[in-house]
Amino acid sequence: MKMMESKNKLLKVPFPNGGTFLYGIIGNPVKHSASPYMQTQAFHALGINAIYVPFEVKKENIKDAIKALKVLNVKGVNVTVPYKEEIIPYLDEIDEDAKIIGSINTIKIENEKAFGFNTDAPGFILALKEEGINVKGKNILILGAGGTSKALSYILLKEGVNKIFVLNRTFEKAKKIENHLKSYGNIEAFELSNENLKNFLPQVDIIINTTSLGLKKDDPPIFDYSLFSLNSNLVVVDVIYFETPFLRAAKKYNLKTVNGKGMLLYQGALAFEIWTSKKAPIEVMRKALNEILK
Ligand code: ATR
């Protein structure tokens, strides 16, 4: 078949070429990830000859994927759902914080060795700082007890919060986080109920949603949002990167709200810095993220 020849001129792109380095993201699915656009823009902005692409990997292939990254000289990847925990055994070295958290989202490859890091947790702290929120000495209520809850609980204790209340539908999972992290500070598990929220909301400075509720349109409310009336100084944070019903309800009570976009931005910026040892072009990355999430 005869190929159609374009009459258009070639686009002016400085790379890829023979010297281009490859980065990417491993997950399943990865189609909706904002990282390829955000990270490639960051490389371009600093004149680094690199591109960042999605790798949709099946569960049974994660071990081979790590081997492939090494032999193909890929320089680094992010790891997303559902592999942040189960990829750990296939890495050569894990950062100390990531080891305690038990999940990684960033891998750097050097001399055919894979090093794992968690930039979600410190990225969350940087995102709060940017909003003028300092967590030191604060009382924090965390909704949910999955991987994100564990990562944030650990980093918040490390940052010197006064106390963390972890509330979860399945109490045993919250208790597991309490037991895992109690040597790092004051953390206590409870069942997720309106009764408990009524008791704790007046005592806390910040409430953080790490449950998946709010991702889908028909999700039920996490709790009775009229309870927001109990604390007019509450800061309300969601790790989901758009305005969820949880955040919308908080706004109705004139509470300060923060969505997960900043966390997404800063986990990417910290990963970029691990890979390149250069300061991440944060405003370029923010612009790219806003553009792609529009
Ligand atoms: P991640 O790794 O992103 O933290 P996860 O491990 O899947 O995600 O955890 C999801 C969290 O959302 C859990 O705390 C889960 O509660 P359970 O441990 O009881 O399953 C919470 N969650 C999901 N659907 C929920 C619902 N309908 N009501 C309350 N909590 C819910």
List the helices and strands and how they pair.
Elements: E1 21-27, H1 35-45, E2 50-56, H2 62-71, E3 76-79, E4 93-94, H3 96-101, E5 106-110, E6 113-117, H4 120-130, E7 139-143, H5 147-158, E8 163-168, H6 171-181, E9 187-191, H7 194-200, E10 206-209, E11 235-238, H8 245-252, E12 256-258, H9 261-276, H10 282-292
Parallel strand pairs: 1-2, 1-3, 4-6, 7-8, 7-10, 8-9, 10-11, 11-12
Antiparallel strand pairs: 3-5, 5-6
Overall description:
This protein has 294 residues and is of the alpha/beta class. The protein folds into 2 domains: 127 residues, 3-Layer(aba) Sandwich (Rossmann fold); 138 residues, Rossmann fold (3-Layer(aba) Sandwich). It has 10 helices and 12 strands. It has a 6-stranded mixed β-sheet with strand order 2-1-3-5-6-4. Strand 7, helix 5 and strand 8 form a beta-alpha-beta unit. Helix 1 runs antiparallel to helix 10 and helix 9 packs across helix 10. The mean pLDDT is 96.
What keyword list fits this structure?
294 residues; Rossmann fold; 2 domains; six-stranded mixed beta sheet; six-stranded parallel beta sheet; 10 helices; binds 2'-monophosphoadenosine-5'-diphosphate
Structural class based on helices, strands and sheet pairing: alpha/beta
Rg (CA only):
21 Å
Shape: globular
Q: Spans with pLDDT under 50 lasting ≥5 residues?
A: none
Summarize the model shown.
The protein has 294 residues and is an alpha/beta fold. It contains ten helices and twelve strands.
